[in-house]
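User: Before I run my own analysis I want an independent prediction to cross-check against. Here's the chain; please return only the structure tokens and, at the end, one sentence I can use as a sanity check.
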Amino acid sequence: MRHMRIGAIAALALLLGCAQAATTTSAPTPRAAPAFTHTRADEWLNSAPLTVEKLRGKVVLVEFWTFDCINCLHSAEWVKKVAQDKAGAGLVVIGVHTPELPEERNVANVHSAVARLGIRYPVMIDGDYSYWNAMGNNYWPAFYLIDANGQVRGSAIGEMHVGDTEALKVERAIDALLAARS
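Assistant: Structure tokens:
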């Protein structure tokens, strides 16, 4: 079992190294995931407020998005597919809606967009950019992988499409983190 865990971690390091050249923006050294900065029920959709501590033991894919960003909209099908396909294995997807345009700051508009897009995974509304800043993010869409121990293990920026090379790299990294949990 220990050898399987070491092998999965080595595979993850190789995958993140490959992805880093094209899309990974975080340092290859794991760092503690920042606490979610919004804790009120009205700041979360599809879920009660979550904490990094409550998610220990799960692998988390954090997606920074906004509903009028065309690149985010192009990635929506991939995110929903990954959320659905890997939930049973222990993946939790959290959308972090951080507005770019004035109309995206209206929480009712975010609710409408989540419903229209068929998003069922938790969405934290980050209207003040506090989680964006805590994560050190600069892009829409951006994706961060948090391992079962609460460590940020990698990130990717830009559109993700079902079956595309970069999306498959991220999916392999997710699978390696899920395998390393057991």
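Sanity check: Residues 2-181 form a domain with the Glutaredoxin fold (CATH 3.40.30.10).
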